[in-house]
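Q: What would this chain look like folded?
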Amino acid sequence: MIEITDAISLDESELGFSFILGSGPGGQNVNKTASAAQLRFDVRGSASLPAAVKARLMGLAGTRLTREGEIVITARRFRSQERNRADAVARLTALIAKAAAPPTPPRVRTTISRAEKEQRLRAKARRATVKSMRARPDSAD
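A: My prediction, written as structure tokens:
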């Protein structure tokens, strides 16, 4: 079981892995070994996730989501299969954790009252008067 939040955990049997030839670090060896990990997770068929989290996850997945409702994550940062596999799982858990957080309500736009506007303008006028009194007197005086 992979812990995501206190309430949500994934069963490892829901994750499908395949290993492909990867670019990146490894020199000539990278052309011969399948070190990049490709993780597939079926969002629609997952029994571990609540419906609300599934819906938000499918929205967050973007181009990683297939038509069949699978999230495909390709990890090729590291030279070894094990580290790439762990990286792919970490990226998936971070994505699910982000989807599990409840959405913040949109900001309600407010207007400034007429009294507040007038008070601000009076304060600006007072400040301008104070600053103009600091100026040197004209030579004509």
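Strands lie at 2-3, 9-10, 15-20, 36-42, 70-75.
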